[in-house]
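Entry 12.
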Amino acid sequence: MAWVWLRQGVEAHRALLKADEFSGSNSAGETYKNFYLGKISALDYFCNYELVKIYSQTQLLVKNPQILDFAETEWLWQFQDQEVV
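Predicted 3D structure (tokens):
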């Protein structure tokens, strides 16, 4: 999920740079600018409040591997050889 947010953040940043080149006071331009600023704000939230939880959740799995005893290996790794687009 983090790579999706990162990709959106990069594209939002690029769009904002282009918007600055054509800065004007029309409402459509402001609407798009606000949209991309919202994307960057959501990325900031994700990185600061959701992504940081990964370490503690990983430690929980490392210390208690039986948590996943019910799961079949194929359920967890079915896409490992496929490229994610």
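Annotation: DSSP finds four helices and no strands in the chain. Residues 27-50 form the longest helix (24 residues).
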